[in-house]
Amino acid sequence: MTERRENAGERGSLLEARDLHVEFASRGRRARAVDGVNLAVGEGEIVALVGESGCGKTTLARTLLGLERPTSGSVLYGGAPLSYSSRALKAYRREVQLVLQDPTGSLNPRHTVYEAVAEGPRIHGMSDERDRVVSALARTGLRPPERFLHSYPHELSGGQRQRVVIAGALALDPRVLVADEPVASLDASVRGEILALLLRLRDELGLSALVVTHDLGLAWNIADRVAVMYLGRIVESGPVEQVLRSPTHPYTQALLSVLPESPSPVVLSGEPPDPTRIPGGCRFHPRCQVLAAGAAARAGVEGRCRSQPLAILPVSPFSADSHAACHYAGARLE
């Protein structure tokens, strides 16, 4: 496999969502699973997409992979809109690979490690199949790779199975990994090893990654930038240190408050988000602790919180700027 692409030094946007909307029919209504998202992943950049279950982050990831077609807006790869022809999608999925959260469910129990990692190269008709399998296993830390070629998933530890899944992606020499909760099913002792592996692959191969997670602690340890998603839209984004040390959106503050080191957890009120019933004004206002405490009223923005929609946040790769879709945060900066 090639060590790096020739254009790895070009620090532009590699994978991008532009004003992306994805809707589904649900109980006679339309569920706006992704409701206007701008998101960019640059060459060699790791972006964490964070939010609670049901916020739309997995649908967004599937749409970026070409597994869902947007209702409106576009997915761009290398600056060009994604084509949905079978031939174009096959080529695209060699470049942008998915890593799932459950290695046990991702691997066929009847297939050996060799067969699991070789599946991609076989689909794409690559003649150097064995070399790719051996190299991919070695890159993920399964050394010597020959020791694992004829093993079955049940003979491996959870961490080893996740490395096999990552090796299956690496065998195609991708430019982007989309990792959906990559360590959620692993023991705490193994999570750090897999995160360190993803960082090493970024440094050695110039890989980009979008890491989908509900865990802000994971985002802190691996990401360059973080995008916080609530009810189908990015509500705060920016450099990970800036956003997670000094969050300005009340939702981000609430997510951070449940980390073990937080002195005072925030308990959100109201019902969990329903993508078929997105409220007017700020979509977070029915559950917002700032609004409930009267701080928004004292800042003179309570009416705007309840009735005035917020603009879709801009985004660019490697941006040093942070943005928050929040009337209260905006008023404090004025």
TrEMBL record:
Keywords: ATP-binding, Nucleotide-binding, Transport. InterPro entries: AAA+_ATPase, ABC_transp_ATP-bind, ABC_transporter-like_ATP-bd, ABC_transporter-like_CS, Oligopep_ABC_C, P-loop_NTPase. It comes from Streptosporangium subroseum. GO terms for molecular function: ATP binding; ATP hydrolysis activity. This is Peptide/nickel transport system ATP-binding protein. SUPFAM superfamilies: P-loop containing nucleoside triphosphate hydrolases (SSF52540). Belongs to the ABC transporter superfamily. One of its GO terms (biological process) is peptide transport. Residues 15-256 form the ABC transporter domain. It holds the Pfam family oligo_HPY. The lineage of its organism: Bacteria, Bacillati, Actinomycetota, Actinomycetes, Streptosporangiales.
